[in-house]
């Protein structure tokens, strides 16, 4: 039996709210679907055109010029323009001055060219806009994320009962690891429930240890966790930029003798600058001896797990209490895409939270996916779809081939640097990052200036610092090569981070030649100025 009830009323009452014209900009009916196809086609053309017309990794525009031009753009115009016109503006004013991550000369940061299958997945996950904070906002997506997380746990040889969640990247993964470490430690050592009661009085003596080459987000997390950056005790590194185990033992013994409470060890599998991988097995031993939480920051090097050849570099990572791995670095996913993995999933109890509107306790009892309790976020993207699509499209071996290739390329370019007198290799590459310097005292220009037979005088570190900084800035300004600068013991060095599987050794030889040419020009110009 039906009643006229609500739906029987007239649709055309004069005071009825009617959908606005802008409702055409939404999917859901044939007109919206057609508008979507048109919009995506246009966006795609805009992107492909920007690649087709581009030359080199960056146009070289400086920030002042960009600000002047971009400040002219309206943000909230009263009336809209056709999408085609808006996209044209974006193409001209934004895309044209974007760094082109696909260019072989874009070799600065851990900033990858995203794989095409992942870009297709990105379209689907933003188009469907599933939100992983509750099952009813993301049914299949929640279950697929759980499934991908399980597969990642297997990839790192975690035992049954491991768990995890997708994150926005290494920053969030490191924070989650250290948050759980802190709360686990305070519960087991001080019988303190930090989630409800806050930090215990002993918190001022909590310490975490990592190498001096660890990522700054360890300090950032300590700050955000209410421990303060001083709670991070950095341990010196060895010649290969890995944590020095003797120094680690001394540090731990000293902290204990001082009455501190070291609660976590952070190992890095792939330091941001050198790609160096800490001795994870030995660190796991230390953590086990003292019952500390062992977190491994594998934001960069975690990708080795996909390759049979490179996986041994990560030996011991399965013993970590938690692992952070980024998919938006050496795993070729568009930003952001990372995962946090927890060896003993029961330890998620330190984060548990039930909101009646999202994940009431009775749902937990029924086994409904409950991802909001595993994350520090609420609304969260379905980023797990991207690696899922990529791995299925390229195969594990396809991705592994890319990772292996860029590591081989790093070895090849390191050999080229070693063979070039005007360049100095700062460290053997451990993954795909190569840190080096231009050495003015060894360049041809300097040699000629010093006379044919004499070796030029070694330059001061101040001069080394200056010229290497200038090289990087001028290369960026000319848009020829985008490489990174870093510092070793306070002195500038240059860095190539190789991620692009299309980049060749010849591309990199051109980049190195550009470094030498710019270095010599800078030296010569300075010589002219000095003698003028
Ligand atoms: C990039 C990086 C991070 C930070 O990760 P985001 O994804 O940028 O948040 C942390 N640790 C290491 C070793 C990294 O390389």
UniProtKB/TrEMBL annotation:
Question: Per its UniProt record, what InterPro entries does this chain match?
Answer: Aromatic_deC, PyrdxlP-dep_de-COase, PyrdxlP-dep_Trfase, PyrdxlP-dep_Trfase_major, PyrdxlP-dep_Trfase_small, Pyridoxal-P_BS
Tell me the organism: Natrinema altunense (strain JCM 12890 / CGMCC 1.3731 / AJ2)
- Residue segments, region Disordered: 1-29
Positions the record marks as coiled coil are: none
Family of the protein in this entry = Belongs to the group II decarboxylase family.
What does the record give as cofactor?
pyridoxal 5'-phosphate
UniProt-listed GO biological process terms: amino acid metabolic process; carboxylic acid metabolic process
Its ancestry begins with: Archaea, Methanobacteriati, Methanobacteriota, Stenosarchaea group, Halobacteria
- Cited PROSITE patterns: DDC_GAD_HDC_YDC
Keyword hit for Lyase: yes
Sample GO molecular function, one term: pyridoxal phosphate binding
Protein name listed in UniProt: Pyridoxal-dependent decarboxylase
The domain of life for this entry's organism is: Archaea
Instruction: Identify one Gene Ontology CC term for this UniProt entry.
Output: cytoplasm
Q: Does the keyword Cell inner membrane apply?
A: no
């Amino acid at each position: 039996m039906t009643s006229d009830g609500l739906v029987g009323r007239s649709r055309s009452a004069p005071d009825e709210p009617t959908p606005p014209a802008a409702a055409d900009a939404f999917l859901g009916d044939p007109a919206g679907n057609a508008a979507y196809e048109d919009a995506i086609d246009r966006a795609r053309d805009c992107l492909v055109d920007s690649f087709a017309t581009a030359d080199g990794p960056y146009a070289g525009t400086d920030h002042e010029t960009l600000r002047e031009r971009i400040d002219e753009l309206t943000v909230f115009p009263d009336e809209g323009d056709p999408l085609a016109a808006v996209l044209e503006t974006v193409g001209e004013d934004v895309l044209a001055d974007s760094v082109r991550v696909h260019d072989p000369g874009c070799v600065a940061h851990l900033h990858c060219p995203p794989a095409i299958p992942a870009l297709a997945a990105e379209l689907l996950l933003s188009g469907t806009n599933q939100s992983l904070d509750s099952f009813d906002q993301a049914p299949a997506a929640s279950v697929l994320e759980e499934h991908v997380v399980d597969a990642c746990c297997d990839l790192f040889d975690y035992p049954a009962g491991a768990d995890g969640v997708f994150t926005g990247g290494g920053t969030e993964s490191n924070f989650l690891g250290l948050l759980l470490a802190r709360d686990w430690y305070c519960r087991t050592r001080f019988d303190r429930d930090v989630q409800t009661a806050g930090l215990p009085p002993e918190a001022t003596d909590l310490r975490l240890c990592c190498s001096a080459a660890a990522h700054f987000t360890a300090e950032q997390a300590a700050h955000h966790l209410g421990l303060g950056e001083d709670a991070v005790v950095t341990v010196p590194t060895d010649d290969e930029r890995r944590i020095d185990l003797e120094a680690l033992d001394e540090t731990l013994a000293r902290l204990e003798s001082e009455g501190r409470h070291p609660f976590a060890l952070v190992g890095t599998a792939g330091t941001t600058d050198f790609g160096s991988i800490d001795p994870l097995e030995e660190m796991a031993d230390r953590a086990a001896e003292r019952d500390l939480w062992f977190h491994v920051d594998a934001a960069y090097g975690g990708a080795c797990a996909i390759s049979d050849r490179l996986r041994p570099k990560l030996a011991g990572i399965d013993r970590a209490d938690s692992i952070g791995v980024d998919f938006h670095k050496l795993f070729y996913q568009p930003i952001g895409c990372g995962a946090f993995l927890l060896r003993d999933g029961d330890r998620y109890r330190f984060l548990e939270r039930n909101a009646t509107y999202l994940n009431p306790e009775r749902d937990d009892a029924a086994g409904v996916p409950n991802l909001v309790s595993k994350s520090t976020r609420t609304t969260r993207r379905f980023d797990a779809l991207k690696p899922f699509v990529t791995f299925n499209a390229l195969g594990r071996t396809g991705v592994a081939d890319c990772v292996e290739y860029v590591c081989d390329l790093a070895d090849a370019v390191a050999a080229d640097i070693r063979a070039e007198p005007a360049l100095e290799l700062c460290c053997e590459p451990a993954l795909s990052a190569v840190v080096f310097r231009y050495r003015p005292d060894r360049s041809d220009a300097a040699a000629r200036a010093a006379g044919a037979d004499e070796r030029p005088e070694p330059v001061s570190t101040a001069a080394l610092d200056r010229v290497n900084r200038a090289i990087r800035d001028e290369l960026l300004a000319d848009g020829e090569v985008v490489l990174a600068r870093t510092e070793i013991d306070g002195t500038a060095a240059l860095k190539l981070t190789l991620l692009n599987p299309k980049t060749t050794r010849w591309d990199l030889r051109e980049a190195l030649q550009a470094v030498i040419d710019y270095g010599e020009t800078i030296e010569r110009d300075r010589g002219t100025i000095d003698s003028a």
